[in-house]
Structures are given as structure tokens and as C-alpha cells.
Design a protein that fits this description.
With about 180 residues, the protein is mainly α. It has a domain of about 120 residues. Helices cover about 55% and strands about 5% of the residues. A two-stranded antiparallel ribbon has the order 1-2. Strands 3-4 form a two-stranded antiparallel ribbon. Helix 1 packs across helix 4. The longest helix has 22 residues. The termini are far apart.
Length: about 180
Amino acid sequence: MTLQPQQPALAAELLQHLDLGNRARGARTGGYLRTLDLDEVRAADNANSQWFRNVLDALKRWPGHALVGDRAGRAAWLIAQRAEHDRALQERCLALLTPAAAAKTADPRHLAFLTDHYMVTGGLAQLFGTQYGPEGILPVHDPDHLNDRRLAHGLCPLPLYALPEQPRPHLLAGTL
């Protein structure tokens, strides 16, 4: 179900800022993707982060789908996800997105992805198994309860064989 935004002007701005980041990541020229310019990507992400910080200051809550509609709610999450250069902003986003997801005014999948991204970029094991590297899924905290967490946040279960080898003390001890 697509919700009509309560704040259509903010919704439009979120989509414009997402487009800025998307263009920096791979604008098409003559039908072909151009070479990625990392300086342009960083500049777009920095500008979006600064702008988004001001949005959060004004709103004092997460701009989820209940406030800005589905597409702009997704844009808010992607802007936060791409702010990995600004961990303080991502922490703030997580603090606002967590109650919004619990209240169903924001997509709980966005919370799962942002949480994992924040943890992985901070050198920690992820909770929801959303982040992958060249060798496959990156390490997961408490893999025995991974699918419970995933299902609670609207994600499909992962087969346990897809997880990297991690010690599971209860299996080593011979108990289930």
C-alpha cells in the first residue's frame, strides 16, 4: 500500500537528494555508464549528510513512509546508509529509525540494513546478515538466531549453510 505523504515538500527534497547521490554513482552518458568518480560520490554523500542532519534537527523524528511516503522513506534510509563517513549521523539515524520501525511508521527492513551496515563498517559482526563481501556473507553475531531476527524485521530467512564458518559452542559441546 502506498501512503500519501503528510509532508510532500520534504518527500520531494528527499528524492532530489537521493538522485544527487545516484547520479554521482553512475550517471548514464549516451546510454553507457560512465566511470565512477569517487570524489564526486564523496561530495554528494557529504552534501546529503549535512542536509539530512538539518532535516532530522527540524523533524526530531525519522522521515519514514508514514510522513513522506514509500519512495521518499526509502530515500531517507539510503541517504543514511550512504553516510558511512559520518558515524555520529548514522547513530542518530538508528536512534530515530528504531522506534519508527517498531511503530510501523518506517520500514523495519531499512532498520536491519542500516544496523548491519553501521556494525560492519565499525568492524563488528552484523545482526541481520544483510552485508556481503567478496567471499559471501560477512560475519554474523549469534547466527543461531539470525533467521528469527530477519523474520521479525520483514526479511526472508537465510539458509544456515550460507553463513561463514563461525564457532557454535553448543554444537561443539554436543548439545542442541
